[in-house]
Amino acid sequence: MNHLINACTDLLCEVRKKNPLIHNITNYVTVNDCANAVLAIGASPIMADDAAEVEEIVSISSALVINIGTLNQRTIASMIMAGKKANEFNIPVVLDPVGAGASTLRNKTVQEILSQVKIDVIRGNLSEISFLAGFKASTKGADTAKVDEKNNTVDIAKIVSNRYSCVVGITGKVDIISDGIRVAKIANGDKFLSKVTGTGCMTSALVGSFCGVTKDYYTATVAGIATMGISGEIAFEKAGEMGTGSFHINIIDALSNMNSAFFLERGKIDETKY
Questions:
Q1: Which residue, of 4, 70, 175, 269, has the greatest Cβ tally within 10 A?
Q2: What does the pLDDT average to over 263-268?
């Protein structure tokens, strides 16, 4: 039996048992989705982004998720403050570089965060991670550009992982997770996940939820990404033909009902060491 799938099921049980507090500094488009995803998987969300409180909030949290989806100068300062305080308390930090490569502000912000905060996990799409790897990326807003699909996903994940000494998760048709040595490939998911705003942001929030109960951030990233993939499959089976609105709601239902049996039955996870 796949040891990585077993490890993911163990982490799911830990999240449900420990109910870790997950501090999210995320965007106003998906903040409600992220909060509900964290709650559905068994963790506890707190969505604080004001500089007057982020250091206090992160110091009592089990993980910090930074999402640059809708930037402004106020939240940029808060992200860096919270990240530095998380580092001080050895609290894991997950970065979602939404739209990296699309604008000067996003590019500057993500580089500022990476230069001032020790990031434990970076979760993004291929265009975003390609930009961080130093490739010329053609980011299409928050989506992967078609032209970037030619890039070698495994190589890019390893480059960014080694450059920033962190775990990297690239989500797409086949998800790739690497810690620079190990590479996991996840074949779960449904194409409808790309038709609903916020599924990537929710995935990063889920990764943060799993990071909140372990120091094995590689397995936590696999667990978070696989959880969303499996939930997407279940949601489509139940409501996909009804449309994206019903599909969206059923993602949260699937997350709240996620258990070890679903992982063992549906998980499509393979691992290679390089």
A1: 175
A2: 94
